[in-house]
Amino acid sequence: MTDKASGFGGPIGTWLRRVAWVVGSFASFFLLFFDPLDVHPADSWLQRIVGYHAGPMTAAAPGGEDASATGEREIVFYRNPMDPTITSPVPAKDEMGMDYVPVYADEAERALGAGATVAIDPVVVQNMNVQTQIVEKGDLRHEIRTVGYLEYDQERMVTVTTKYDGWVEKVYVNYVGEPVAEGAGLFEVYSPELVQTEQELLSAMRYAARFRDAPDDARLRAEALVDAARARLAFWDISPAQIARLEETGEIFRTLTVTAPAGGLVMKRMPGLEGMAVTPGMEAYHIADITSLWLSVEVFEDQVVWIRPGAEAEVTFTYFPGETIRGTVEFIEPELSEQTRTLTVKIAVPNPDGRLRKGMFATVVFDPVLVRDAVTVPAESVLRTGRRSVVIVALGDGRFEPREVELGHAHGGLMEVHSGLAAGDRIVTSSQFLLDSESKLRAAVQTMLSGAATPAGAHEGHAMGEMDHGMDHEGHEGHEGHSTAEPDEAADPHHGHHNHGHEGHGA
After folding, report:
1. CATH assignment of the domain containing 297
2. Do 487 and 502 lie in a common domain?
3. Which of 154, 171, 185, 370 stands the most exposed, by the fewest C-beta atoms within 10 Å?
4. In the chain, how many domains are there?
């Protein structure tokens, strides 16, 4: 009776209970989601999941406890997902609408402890197709490839002449290109001077025989006449064998046979030689020894510095596929061609079987040593960033470290390393640009943390970012200054907030 009188058991009571339930639900939702007193433990969870921050950004957990004690991860600041040098102390978005990425205290500590070293899960390393190679030490060579043609060896060419007047009565070698052996007869010549000298030799021999038992003075004078006649014949290129035959037989030869002073091919022959009158110095034959030929090649002026007399070269001919001949540099012409800017190099090529012929074309490869015992790396493993050259070193266990190197000579896909690496180091030869990007991010984080170790410093950088924001609207200054910054060249990261801190407050 009393409850009904009060109205709580009737329609009015039901309406009041519904209103109370709605008000209580709304209050719970407000306290849970907005957390105006910054005391609810779900605030950090919402902040990580949706990037929402209801209360002020503090390093302490609710109730004054340390965040690490409650198991929560403390956010030090937020970085631009496209440019790690741009940061904000509060959540923000970049120009493309992408949320800034939070940087937690534990990640910052690892970054400070590890420097620019990157640690990657082995599965990720395999998916990135990271390939490594051991740094080797050896000779760095400079391959030079050119072409040339064969010609006669100028050191093995002889000319057949006479040193006396006479007439050719018989010719034994009649055409150019005919092979001749050393000492083989070329032609017979009649010369009155030769006949007279032969008679003088025989007379001197008979005179010396009569004075064989005479006193020493007379005997020596007779023997001197014999020696003088022999020397005169020798001066006229009469061979010792011919002189010995003359002395043994005692018969005057009307004609003497002129022999080949060296073996080879007849390069040149006086036409109509038979019956012709010869005079001293007349070139009757040219003979070239083909057991060794010269290969004439041309090399550019910047390549000659690597070629020296005595250097070896590999010579190949299309006429003999699969065969390689080793030649030796004999001579380098001193004059540079003004038209082609090349120098001519003569290479001696052995030809013991006579297969090679004058005029054949050949491919020549020089392989001189640029640097001996050099530390070399593949060219594709080097990352060039303007004035710097970086190589990613694999430290093992999924850890990688970018290392600046000083380079030297480069050729054949290899580069000489003066400093920064040693033989035996393992370097990355593929996908190293991904590791380099990660290392730059790690270095940027380390640089930023050195100037933003406390939240107060972060807020100070945010205030400077607001000043930059004003300059951005007035001077239209963008992010070009950060796009190409190297880790060691990056400025204080909190000077690069620009308008992001302002947008964070707006969010």
Report:
1. 2.40.30.170
2. yes
3. 154
4. 4
Q: What's the full length of the chain, in residues?
A: 507
Indicate whether 309 and 331 sit together in one domain.
yes
Name the one residue in this structure whose structure tokens are 């008000």: 23
Within a domain: 217: yes
**Which structure tokens are listed for 245?**
């035959």
Query: What's the per-residue H, E or C state across 395-451?
Result: EECCEEEEEECEEEEEECCEEEEEECCCCCCEEEEECHHHHHHHHHHHHHHHHHHHH
Burial code of 38-57, b = ≥16 C-beta within 10 A, e = fewer?
Answer: eebeebbebbeeebebbeeb
pLDDT in tens, 181-220: 988 999 999 999 888 888 888 888 888 888 887 788 888 8
Q: How far apart are CA 257 and CA 183, in angstroms?
A: 10
Residue 459, CB half-sphere, CA atoms under 13 Å: how many?
A: 8
Predicted confidence (pLDDT) per residue in 287-343, tens digit: 999 899 999 999 998 888 888 888 889 999 998 998 999 999 998 998 888 888 899
Q: Which domain holds residue 88?
A: 73-130+431-507
Average pLDDT over residues 65-86: 68
> Is residue 170 domain-shared with residue 216, that is, in the same domain?
yes
Strands 264-269 and 185-190: unpaired
Distance between start and end Cα atoms, the chain: 57
Pair 77, 90: CB distance under 8 Å:
no
Give yes or no: residues 175 and 246 share one domain. Answer: yes
CA dist., res. 91 & res. 4, Å (int): 56
- What is the token pair recorded at 135? 């740094």
pTM reported for the whole predicted model: 0.49
Task: Answer whether residue 1 is part of any domain.
Answer: no
